[in-house]
Write a structure and sequence with these properties.
The complex is a heterotrimer of chains A (718), B (313) and C (315). Chain A is built from 25 helices and 24 strands. With 718 residues, chain A is an alpha/beta fold. Chain C is mainly α. Classes of the chains: A alpha/beta (718), B mainly alpha (313), C mainly alpha (315).
Amino acid sequence: MSVPILEVESLSTEIQLSRSVVHAVGDVSFSIGEGETLGLVGESGCGKSITGLSIMRLLPNGGHITSGAIRLAGRELVKLKEREMRSVRGNEVAMVFQDSMTSLNPTMPIGRQISEQIRRHRSVTKKEALRQAADSLSLVGFPRSDERLGDYPHQFSGGQRQRIMIAIALSCEPKLLIADEPTTALDVTIQAQILGLLDDLKERLGMAVLLVTHDMGVVAGRADRVNVMYAGRIVETAPTVELFRHMHHPYTQALLASIPLLSQDRAERLFSIPGIPPDLTTPPPGCRFAPRCSRATDRCREEEPTLQPTEVDGHLFACWHPVDGPAARIVAPDPGKLATPAPEAPSAPPAGSEGAAAAGSPAPVRPPAARVAAAEPDQGVPLLVIDSAVRAYPVKSGILQRTVATVKAVSDVSFSVERGETFGLVGESGCGKTTLGKLIVGLEKLDAGRVALRGTDISKLSARELRSFRRDLQMMFQDPIASLDPRMRVGAILREPMRVQGVGTAASQRAVITDLLSEVGLPATAIERFPHEFSGGQRQRIGLARALTLNPQVVVADEPVSALDVSIRSQVLNLMKRLQQVHSLTYVVISHDLAVVKYLSDRIGVMYLGKLVEVGSVDDVYRRPVHHYTAGLIATAPEPDPTIEKSKRKVAIKGELPSPINPPSGCRFRTRCPAAQELCAEQEPPMRAFHDGHLAACHFPLQEPMRPADKEAQTASV
Amino acid sequence: MTVSSSVGELADEASIDPGVFLPDAGEVQGPKATWRLAARSFRDNRLAVVGTGILVFFFLFCFVGPLIYHTNQISTNIANAYYPPSAKHLLGTDGNGFDELGRIMVGGQAALEIGLFSSFIATVLGTLVGAVAGLLGGVVDAILMRIVDVLLSVPLLFVILIIGDRFSNATVLSLSLIIGSFSWLVSARLVRGEVLSLRERDFIFASRTMGASRHHLIYKHLIPNALGVVIVNITFQVADAINLLAILGFLGYGLQYPQVSWGDMLSGALNYLPDGYWWVVYPVGICLVLVVMACNFVGDALRDTVDVRLRRR
Amino acid sequence: MTAYLIRRVFISLIVILGISLLTFVMTHWIAPNPGRAVLGLKASPAAVAAWNRAHGYDNPVWAQYWGYLWKLLHGNLGYSYKLNQSVASLIAENAPHSLWLSGSSVVLSILIAIPLGIFQAVKRNSVADQTATAVAFTAYSMPQNFLGILLIGWLAITWHIFPAEASQSEKIIPYILAWRANFLPIATLTITAVAGYSRYQRSAALDSLAQEYIRLARAKGLTERAVLFRHLTRNAILPMVTLIGLSIPVLLGGNLIVEDLFNSHGLGLLFFNSLSNEDFPTVIALTLIAGIATVVGNFVADVALTVADPRIRIS
């Protein structure tokens, strides 16, 4: 290992709140060498960001370092006077934050925001500082950077602002860069660009990088070594490959096992860690992971393990009952043969006796009235058909606020979903997937085309007819806080759909609510609680339970797990799958996260700027992508596997999303496509078939399209 | 079991050993009920407690006080005018020979009544207008909001003086009506803003996917959620009304004699002070400030409480 | 930006039209029979009817409103029969005094409240902050007339530092120069305004302080001074611009109280005296002027905000 630039020794940080003290970081030690990237991973609230801010000594109000030492190139930072520390910040240590929208001063030109740091630490003239600022901007990839010095942050896109923040951080060539979730707010294609830039600059400037993130995929590709944090402690530290291949801490193992992989077999259940992380105002006395650990013994609950070395240099872990290497993924029974719900393995069954009963015997299915209706033959039509759907929003401008243009959020999209199937919609933010989801459940009105359930066009229905159709079309929302009325108790929230639809008596409604709660793994006492008393994952379970109250046929899930931590995410994903089997649900899953969509879906549609560019079975889309956008998305999605990640160094999709108000002519992806030619600008590519049910719209596809007469040859060439 | 590797084994262990049983979704944490949380954050705010205390005191003082501290507030007696404070008249007497302390109690009754009643009127009006504008949107919203703009542009004091000019015989009721019917503007804007932001919340969308009627959305979601803002606004409204009443009284547009409110009692202040009759000026003024301040304290604390509850987690 | 401003002008004009309608309605409310109000109770009904006819008060209501608007558009604010003078000339005589009182107190209160509010936010929960908050809260909760009475009681009557009456000069220059006489009225207006503004500025500055860009500025190693002056101040002042625009009606109301209390000859006192003398044309015209002043003030605030905030300026 090279000379350490940063050494952190037994750092402990606390945050004083009005009534309590959060023991945010406890006894954390690590070091980073020159040119090295150390990944600091963990779930929200584990203390990873506070560790980064402790090094900068920029803790939030009430935060203070209680003990420990932080040495930067041998110089102790904890004891420095504030004045001396100021000349370290931005000069020797710099930081990049997550949210580039709020991190840049909205009323100051970006040139000054960069040059003020240069002038603070270097004795140069204003003019020279601005010239250096322009240099920094070119370094992070702005052509003609001197022309943009006078622009304000709102004139840049999210990815560009993140580049500006990196330019600020690097303008004084610091020895250490702390990147706190630098790409979390960005789309995957932009994320890959920014991470590539950081890597490139690290090598050019020879800095040390502390990469703070929750994303195991990001550390797998970018970090040389990884520290895993849990509840304020480092539980395991190792070189990246060693950590992913031979972890010893059960938390590391469980965390990695709970992330769906692109290569994941859909039949496998995801591992999930039961429960939620401890409250750091009153941390448990022994090992902090013990309450959620299946290996925990009395010793774990009483005595806290310390980091101990292994035979591999630099690999330490803190556990009394270590594991060895990754967990084998379990294969669940084939859903087709499933008569009873999947056994509750490995996560424990829901609380109480009803919960245990639910796990052992057939689930308490609600009055099957709707189910009977659903079982009627459908005359061969797919359950849900979206046909040339268009949703356009007016863009108003000028003195009279006249409509000067329309943004086609959803532009001529067609696909169908069969009963019991899961259809996944992926795409980056702004591609129209959420609008499409709202169109399906009737929250938005179609401007053209149709959405048909069991052959009936719901956009043509009268308000009264639509009401009864709504029972079969329910939605699960992304934000578990915003989607539950803060003034209603959980009981009232779950009863609401039945009251609105006038279903059941008070007693039968109560029975349904109790069943639902145990099905989603919540204790029956939850009925009396308000939404704010639950954690994010629990609230998402309530949201799912509410969507299921009316026994719907189709549930549209808009980013169902995006707001959740990894370990909670897999709980909800497993639950969604289990409930799909029990209630023979049809899902439309909308997400930007390819691994999540792939794990849940049978078929997938890829959207770009309001257009569906590719649709097909999971295998077709992931193994044999046709559209360059699909291929690029798959290539950029970070996977929690160092071998895969380190092998892909090339940026797959260049540039940024064009304005939806004025989309590119012809193929909308052409501005970012590696294969774009003149034809792409002139003609919009039609949807062509590449395989049974595998369609894509591309002039120069990655595979030959299927000729009607030549199906066999086509299949063979794949 | 030092280096077992399979998650399957882990699962087996978990099912064999129910001693480490955990609910799937984790425990439900947090305090018992929302109102208790709200009450706690309210209690945490010392100023709020002080404010509530002051308000309770003044209600007792003005409405129960006269039952204990008997004074003649009916017939004037010039011979008794301007006695300084003494054991007989704790705060002295005023120019009509009325006991000043008893006068403050009577004047306080009118001030509190008008404050509460007018803010009730303003709140009802404002909530209705704001809710209608926010819910209907479009032309109705535009027209209502322009009306609010117009009324907000003209100084409230000017309008109320002009309207009040025709009520030569002002009573508690007429003053409450005048003040109330011109102070609903701010609450209308608040409620409208709240309704507009609530309309775009996911739980409203969720309710709509269930097929909820407009009626259901309004009564089950919009009103309960907008109520916090309205309640907070009432306390500020009371403070403003009492303040305005004091000014009207001072300018001679208050209650008709022999009725009296605190503002009326200040109207001669500039004549009394040079003569040294401080007891007919300062005590009543201090009462005014205390009551208005108490309302503001409570309002601030309630606002924080509502915010805290919505922001929590 | 131009389109935005033109739209803003358009809306302002609509609001001014609304104000004219309001004052027109108020004219009818306050004096349903203008002839009677002008000629007095002793005039014969025939004379009153003749007067009404001569002045167009027998026309349909919409025609009367149109006539009112027509006159306003030509700068005719009406005629004060009580003072035998055009309202416009009355206003011209009295306006400078009011402008001086209001203007100087607004400028003073901005100069005091903005630094005070930012200081309080930066030193949040310190003794200084809590003291300032307590004082501001008290002043804010005080009816303006009582504040004036307190100041007169202490500074004029007890200690004789300042006179209890504003300058009585009719000419504006001597009026402005008589700073001792005008100290108390300006102080009364300023204290109330500072109480309101500083509370708002404190919370606006607290909001800005919680922003990420403040953290990034500190992460650059800037001195606390630079963080506050370069990054906090400008962003924290922006919301104040709108607030000051919105507070104009309250300031004008305050002017009325203070001019009455200190017997200063300005528009407020004119309004009050006219109301007492049933000189309704003057009362209505002053109300109209106050409304228009508010609309114009809000518009100016919006323009200032547009210039100061690049997010609006460049969009």
